[in-house]
Specification:
With 237 residues, the chain is of the alpha/beta class. It is built from eight helices and twelve strands. The structure holds calcium ion (CA). The site of calcium ion has 5 residues, from loops.
Amino acid sequence: MPEKILVVEDEPSLQETLVYNLEKQGYQVESTGDGLAALSLARHLKPDLILLDIMLPGMDGFEICKILRHEMNVAIVMLTARVDEADRIVGLEVGADDYLTKPFSMRELMARTKAQLRRSEVIREEFEKIKTSEPAPNDVLTFGNLSINQVQREVFLDDQPLALKPKEYELLLCFAQHHGKMLSREFVLECVWGLDYVGDSRTVDVHISWLRQKIGDAAASPVRIVTVRGGGYRFEG
Ligand code: CA
């Protein structure tokens, strides 16, 4: 099944060029130049990716992006004519996955499109693989002197309760549930922060360093949450 892309651009010649080039690459493409039509088309088509212009009749791209983010899991690449819009686009306010500043080359567009689609696919596959191989979780997970009570959401180290922040707890739980498996930063980001989170993998690195400190894992030579070169992290227990 070809991946579905929705092109939302009100400038006819650019819309045409985008559709032509994307179809040439084998994607299934639908397009519109109207903001409101874009919203209903997106709901109907459930595309894998949306190329979304900002200044549109009907409803602007920022608004569309915010609404769709709450409704579906779709990669959104914004098309902007203004460099100063970039901060809003990548910030939490809008929550797009990426953006392109006009004018951009078709080559650049294709590269970004492929990267976004590939990213969604990798995450989906990873989730599927892990989900199908995982037994039902126990209420209490124990790893040596570390135990995690999933019902009370409490963590104990040497029988002493640890004061973990909610995200640190989620992070530890994500690792514990996938004990012994290499987890990519992207997977961890999705697992703990969710699909709608726009941030980069440094968020994961920072939280891991805080978590390591709390569970007594030396930063210089961690033995519980180990860094896998070029890959991500693995929880050894
Ligand atoms: Ca426009």
